[in-house]
Amino acid sequence: MPVYKAPLRDVKFLMHELLDAPAQLAKMPFYAENDTADGDLMNQVLEEAARFVEGELLPLNAVGDQEGCTRHDDGSVTTPTGFKAAYNKYRAAGWTALDADPAFGGQGMPHLISNVLVEMMNSTNVAWSMYPGLSHGAYSALHAVGSEELKAIYLPKIVSGEWTGTMCLTEPHAGTDLGIIRTKATANADGSYAISGTKIFISAGEHDLTPNIVHLVLARLEGSPEGTKGISLFLVPKFLVNEDGSPGERNGVVCGSIEHKMGIHGNATALLNFDGATGYLVGEINKGMNHMFIMMNAARLGTGLQGLGIGETAYQNALAYAKDRTQMRHEPRVNPGENADPIIVHPDVRRMLLTGKAYTEAGRAMAMWLALSIDTEHHHPDEAARKEAADLVALLTPIAKAFMTDNGFNIAVQSQQVFGGHGYIREWGMEQYVRDARIGQIYEGTNGIQALDLLGRKVLMDGGKKLQKLATILQTFIEENEGEDDLAAMLDQLGKAANQLGSLTMVVGQKAMSGPEGADEVNAVAVDYLRFFGHVVYGYLWARMAKIAHAKIAAGQDRDGFYLAKVQTAQFYFAKLFPETKALAATIKAGNESLAVDDRMFGLERALVGA
Amino acid sequence: MPVYKAPLRDVKFLMHELLDAPAQLAKMPFYAENDTADGDLMNQVLEEAARFVEGELLPLNAVGDQEGCTRHDDGSVTTPTGFKAAYNKYRAAGWTALDADPAFGGQGMPHLISNVLVEMMNSTNVAWSMYPGLSHGAYSALHAVGSEELKAIYLPKIVSGEWTGTMCLTEPHAGTDLGIIRTKATANADGSYAISGTKIFISAGEHDLTPNIVHLVLARLEGSPEGTKGISLFLVPKFLVNEDGSPGERNGVVCGSIEHKMGIHGNATALLNFDGATGYLVGEINKGMNHMFIMMNAARLGTGLQGLGIGETAYQNALAYAKDRTQMRHEPRVNPGENADPIIVHPDVRRMLLTGKAYTEAGRAMAMWLALSIDTEHHHPDEAARKEAADLVALLTPIAKAFMTDNGFNIAVQSQQVFGGHGYIREWGMEQYVRDARIGQIYEGTNGIQALDLLGRKVLMDGGKKLQKLATILQTFIEENEGEDDLAAMLDQLGKAANQLGSLTMVVGQKAMSGPEGADEVNAVAVDYLRFFGHVVYGYLWARMAKIAHAKIAAGQDRDGFYLAKVQTAQFYFAKLFPETKALAATIKAGNESLAVDDRMFGLERALVGA
Questions:
Q1: Are B610 and A350 an interchain contact pair (Cβ–Cβ within 8 Å)?
Q2: In Å, how far is B84's CA from the nearest CA of chain A?
Q3: Residue B444 to chain A, least CA–CA distance (Å)
Q4: A177 and B417 in contact by Cβ < 8 A?
Q5: Omega before B332 within 30 of 0, i.e. cis
Q6: Min CA distance, B405 vs chain A (Å)?
């Protein structure tokens, strides 16, 4: 059975030493007034969170995978054994309310803290965690743009966890391309709407954890324009709500089936049929795509945290196995009296383990930096500071989603490899991590879509302004540390790559404006560009972490080797992982040329490109 | 449901145009005498093979995954619905005998042909194909080193497919490290041996396809030395064989359980308990490891062909989906009257498809080159030619196993990505390819072990002689084509990388001899070295294929665009995949230094390295 211990030591290092988070949060009146920015309080909350996930969620992970969800003939869905009991404990302990608005029953803790909670939940049970995870996305959108009336009825229920929420976007013919959805809304006489259509791939779309489910649904109001500009967002409860707030009449939305999937078996992925279901407009008519992105951005970071969380636990389990499993002999011998040494002595095994550790710790640093930036974006008293933070959040969100889920999947695969043949056997649990991690690269916008969002929308569309802000942060750090011998080699690599990111962006940007093929040039290199960008961000964070660690070591404060490990992991990162940028620079420069192949290659009956 | 069409056009291109195989094989008396080297005959056999796999194996692939195998209380195992009927058709058509020795009922066809058959079988049903696959490995070892008596009794049954064979190596505590196995052999008075011990992960170890199973088992004869030098190989039939050749008394080997695995559900992975089972020595006492490697080398190439086969079918299905699925609009529009264009117009989708195509076609070229070299090694009349071929086979086998399975897995993952959310759903079949492909990287010697075999044993142990022979082949090709404008850019990249492979080998070789840490230096870089090496081999083959294709185009013989596709895929390979060598060169140069971290990093209670 897999093991997991929440990485609290690392989290505290990042929170206090890298980010100086309590001091940053104390500048924000919202947290100061709610008394939720206190460092000791945040530590305690995270320790409590660790106990919850280790004690309640971890034991249900394999159960959920093996049992899966069951749909009954009436459209109801039963979750795996133990899921509901764990959910009730989670609610009772107040976790659903952790970072929610106190005006609706929330505890008003920083996103920084809920971010760590979500990482830990994903380390122990992705499928389970998606029930409250989706709910949180629905909360975000409703809180941001819902009417006061809707908020008063639904937010307290969602915040308390009494009800959960969903995001209903995808249709059979429309995944990436939401502009072509067919679900329709028709105005009723009472101000509500009748919603009809079929939504698929609705995570947590039906279940037995709560007596009601609040669906947020994209639909086209009759008479609205074609495409994304004619889409509105509606709230469709599974049960209509009585005057007293209790669930009343069953609404016209029914789970038609649940999917059989590669992984996350414990989460019900529902096909939902809306048949004249009563819905309520959320936000403005025809602004549904904008409102949806409030949920979606939260969901993207949450998905990135799935990659991070699975990467952490896969690494931990590979490490435990590598220390325990003996196989082959190493010189000098570790077990001279026995016939084999623990496999952790073999450098190739260390390479696999260090890959997991280096990507995970950098990912955690980025995620927490991003989460603190979300807090800053929402609550900093200074408008310029809010704008700076918002730009950073916009830039880093697609990287957090794609880079962390790609790395998380790769770590799961490589950690499985450490187990040899045992990694392929279900009872060891490693293959579940691979299956569960895979979805993170696909949903909430495929990682290819994230890359287009980064390069096309976030970088090129504003002429590189957001990118320039980040470049200035990096450049300032590099300049401040010139002459630091301990960091010189890293900063040299980082500086060159950061400059190269700028020049590559210029090259792609020029091609992008060069005519009708410009969009293809962006599309051709976006995935490699995001990966290059991710390495620059991780390289920056590793250099910053190494700087702090060097200072602690120099001050004689490295009692347990934690800081030496930070320095050595940073060195590993720059020696073994960062060089991927050399390949990526070449493939980005190669552009679209080698992709614009003759259509007959693909057996196409007519020419497609340039047709 | 997944689709698959055997890539006969490409196979014929490689067989006739790249390898000039009929002429090469005609030089070998064995094939000349058996009339099995005729080009038309080989084409016909492969067309027949394509019909078999498409018609019989493909429809059973999902069935096998969903049903899996069932073990009963008596230790017997039932294979999935249809497996036995397909096996009977396979036998009846003579496929089990295809490349076997006519002296034992075989058809004496070249390995080149059976290699293609195995690729096609793996494209359509890996789990099913492992039953005859393992049998073939057992055939190879028994044919090479078995006594005439054993061969007379068992080989005709294995060749005809009446019985199947297995390889019993792994034990619970001994996978990579076979020197520490505990299974014991005790001499009986009649010249046979009593075998006792537990073997795990025995593919095709128990099933209902045939009335008998022939296990080849590694065990230590009482009194033999410790380690690999004290291991012998034994033949242990499930049923002892009567005088008339029919299965008789049940032998003391029983399937104790079958594993629940990530994939290849249709193949029974058995734990076998040997309890004083009667066994017969195969080859010489204490030479078991050498004899085992006869099977193992066959199994390694066979495993590489799993990666190749799954890569091909995953690519084909992604291509079909990408032409059918419409999503987003492309400028210029392909479907101007409809609301979306087929996703194959998007360059990032083409990048994913071309990655599959480029790795698969190069892999097929390497596998067929290797297979023809095996034919040459065994049957060429000239001893020097046999030795040359043997060296090439030795060098390329670990690359074929590791590079093809790593690429095959990555292609399966990337092809699944083309499907978006549908790729994660079982009914589309893509997620099964990912799960089935994963085992190829693990078994028959993990890919890490393949890398050590390549760098440590095949390259460094003979002072680089085998490597030098390959380098000469490449250098000759490059020099012969100097001044060919069409190839200049590719040959420039290839030549530089080939030189770099030499210099990297020198650097690692020097470190390897530098003292007790030398072994760690090899271990630290072997995986990256194998990948670098693989790219050099694939680059060479792409350049050769491009040369042939350019000539055909220049001669006006490219009617259907096949040769243009070869040229463009070669260009894609050098533009987008080959540049990985830039990163690998850096990580190989970085060596072991960043891996030799302080042991406290891993929470080790005592120092391990340098202890």
A1: no
A2: 25
A3: 10
A4: no
A5: yes
A6: 13
Task: Output the pLDDT for position A609.
Answer: 47
Q: What six digits make up the tokens of A19? A: 């980010």
Quote the mean pLDDT of chain B.
96
Look at A594 and B571 and tell me if their CB atoms are within 8 Å: yes
User: How large is the greatest C-alpha to C-alpha distance in chain A, in angstroms?
Assistant: 85
**Dist CA A465 CA B225 (whole Å):** 71
DSSP reduced 3-state for A256: strand
> Of the given ranges (A411-420, B32-41, B95-104, B432-441), which has the lowest mean pLDDT?
B32-41
Cα–Cα distance measured from residue A467 to residue A465, given in angstroms and rounded to the nearest whole number? 5
Give the separation between CA B80 and CA A409, rounded to whole angstroms: 31
Give the Cα separation of B264 and B566 in Å (integer).
Answer: 33
Sort A83 into a burial class: Cβ within 10 Å, 0-12 / 13-18 / 19+: buried
* Residue of chain A minimizing CA distance to B262: A424
CA angle A535, A539, A541 (to 5 degrees): 120
Chain B residues touching A611 at Cβ < 8 A: 332, 334
pLDDT in tens, A280-298: 999 999 999 999 998 888 8
Delimit the domains of chain A by residue range.
292-459, 462-593
CA-closest candidate to residue A501, choices A542, A473, A480? A473
Give which of B601, B605, B606, B609 to mutate to test A binding, by max A Cβ within 10 Å. Answer: B601
Buried b (16+ CB within 10 A) or exposed e, B370-393: bbbbbbbbbbbeeeeebebbbbbb
Mean pLDDT of chain A: 96
pLDDT category of residue B13 using cuts at 50, 70 and 90:
very high
- Tell me how far apart the alpha carbons of residues A460 and A12 are, in angstroms, rounded to a whole number: 36
List Cα–Cα distances, B37 to B15, B27, B40, B367, in angstroms: 11, 9, 9, 18
- The span from the CA of A537 to the CA of A501, in Å, is 11
pLDDT at residue A610, rounded to an integer: 42
Contacts of B583 in chain A (CB under 8 A): 579-583
Residue A611, pLDDT above cutoff 80: no
Res A420: pLDDT: 97
Known catalytic residues of B are: 444
Residue A331: how many CB atoms within 10 A of its CB?
Answer: 12
Q: What is the pLDDT of residues B479-509, one digit of tens each?
A: 999 999 999 999 999 999 999 999 999 999 9
Among A258-267, B85-94, B426-435, B598-607, the minimum mean pLDDT is found in B598-607
Q: At what angle do helices A518-554 and A580-590 cross, to 10 degrees?
A: 160
Q: How far apart are alpha carbons B333 and B320 in whole angstroms? A: 20
Give this complex's ipTM: 0.97
Residues of A labelled as active-site residues: 444
**CATH match of B292-459 with 3.40.50.300:** no
Residue B480, token pair as written in the block: 């012969």
Alpha carbon separation from B562 to B9, B10, B15, B327, B546 (Å, rounded): 9, 9, 15, 28, 11
Dihedral angle computed from the Cα positions of residues A404, A410, A415 and A416, in that order, rounded to the nearest 10 degrees: 130
Task: Say if residues A578 and A539 touch (Cβ distance below 8 Å).
Answer: yes
The alpha helices in A53-177, defined as continuous H runs, are 61-67, 83-92, 111-124, 126-145, 148-160
Average pLDDT of B410-414? 98
- Which among B177, B332, B572 is the nearest to A327, CB-wise? B177
Token pair in block for residue B32: 């000349």
For residue A78, give the 3-state DSSP assignment: strand
Which among A261, A349, A521 has the least Cβ separation from residue B424?
A: A261
Question: B302-353 pLDDT, tens per residue?
Answer: 999 999 999 999 999 999 999 999 999 998 898 999 999 999 999 999 999 9
The Cβ-side half-sphere exposure at A211, using a 13 Å CA radius, reads 10
